[in-house]
Write a structure and sequence with these properties.
There is one protein chain. The protein has three helices and ten strands. By secondary structure, the protein is of the alpha+beta class. The strands form three sheets. Strands 1, 2, 3, 4, 7 and 8 form a six-stranded mixed beta sheet that branches. Strand 1 and strand 2 (9-17) form a beta hairpin.
Length: 159
């Protein structure tokens, strides 16, 4: 979870994943990140490696701040969100095979309850129906699902 100071306020950096036919999360908004590999020492090492691979973020410019509690997603992934402060502006170089767009959202906007709601998804009568957080569209991007849940967990920690 890259945290940055931009134009009078704190922001979180997100990516929109590239559209890929066999990726069920293709085109979704996410944080840079991914699976742990054998050479990764811990969740922070995985997060730094993945951020370098996906957006060209130099691990040396990240000040690690900590981790949120791990949780298991509906699809079975164990996710450990790692928070790090990055300097801004910063020249990032997204890998076009993985990342379609890099953008940030202001914490002040994310904190405003008028900008998000919980909905039953995919539909109330679906066998996998569950409560999912959806943010309103901002700058042409919509944050929802696991990334929205991680964002809300982070905001809860700040409160």
């Amino acid at each position: 979870m890259p945290l940055l100071w931009q134009a009078h306020g704190w922001h979180l950096l997100y990516i929109r994943r590239t559209e890929q036919a066999r990726d069920r999360h293709s085109g979704e908004v996410a944080f840079p990140g991914g699976r742990c590999e054998p050479g990764d020492a811990d969740a922070a090492a995985t997060a730094l490696r993945e951020a370098r691979e996906e957006v060209g973020l130099d691990p040396g410019c990240v000040q690690l701040l900590g981790s949120l509690r791990p949780f298991r997603t509906v699809s079975g992934y164990l996710v450990t969100p790692v928070v790090g402060q990055i300097p801004w502006p910063l020249g990032l170089h997204p890998d076009a095979a993985e990342v379609a767009h890099v953008f940030s959202l202001p914490l002040a906007w994310l904190c405003d309850p008028a900008n998000h709601q919980v909905r039953i998804w995919p539909s109330p009568d679906h066998p996998q129906a569950r409560e999912v957080i959806f943010f309103d569209e901002c700058g042409g991007e919509r944050l929802w699902g696991v990334s929205a849940r991680i964002t809300m967990d982070f905001l809860s920690c700040l409160r």
